[in-house]
Amino acid sequence: MKNKKGWEEMDMDCLVNIFQRLGLEDLTIGVPFVCKSWHQASLDPLCWRVLDLEPLDFMPWSKFTKRFMMHYSVHHFSFTGFMRLVAMRSHGSAIELRFPLLFGASMHDLFYASSECPGLKKVVMPNLLLEDEVHIPELVAKWKELELLEIQSKPASFLEMVAQISLNCENFVGLRMLGSIKKDDALAIVRLLPKVKYLCFDKSYLPKEQLLMLMDGCKELERFSVKDCIGFEADEEVMKKGLGIKFFECEGSKLFDDSGYDTDECDPLYVHVI
């Protein structure tokens, strides 16, 4: 009977092919500590093309944080330090970066990521302080390959952000955002993002006028999700126009909220709690 090879003796390319399917927890505190060959394979930049920070618990008392500190023999753990570690290991090859929405990454973290990961195609932004939102257009302009952007709430700099995407991100096709979608916002999307194929404004304030403007003006739109919105009803006109979009989702949307309140000045924070 021939001796079978152990996992540690697998071809390096095979190991890399397997490890690039793993999440960041496994890549940082799992496979590198199994054996030398696994550690070497885990450092291949191909394993770090998707930097998904969302599922990790970065609180000081979390199991993940404690294991990381133990494995790397460090006495202090920081989100910034961890993010820089995984960004550096990508060696500029990362194409997707997902920040945790609620943990509170800083604008410094975002600018560092834009420098270390210039080829990002998909970015999920964290919640930012109001004073930091002014920097979003400058930040987005650095990602020349950007195709998809998810942002938790519409920033005050939204119009300038769209302008910078138009000028710098020729492959941009998708936006996911929550907020109050005003006429100027819809016009900017129609005029400056003509190639957009995916829009998601679930749980936003979206009047019918802006909804129809987007449906008529975004000629290449393939998926449009406006579920649980306030500002329009799925009447015959809306549904008829929706037939021209491959995937149109508007379940749960209504003209007024439960108190009958409806205004163009609707605060996005108000929409959050509906």
From TrEMBL:
What residues does the F-box domain cover? Answer: 7-49
Mind telling me which InterPro entries this protein's record contains? F-box-like_dom_sf, F-box_dom, LRR_dom_sf
Which branch of life, at top level?
A: Eukaryota
PANTHER family per record: F-BOX AND LEUCINE-RICH REPEAT PROTEIN 6, F-BOX DOMAIN CONTAINING PROTEIN, EXPRESSED
What protein name is recorded for this chain?
Answer: F-box/LRR-repeat protein At3g48880
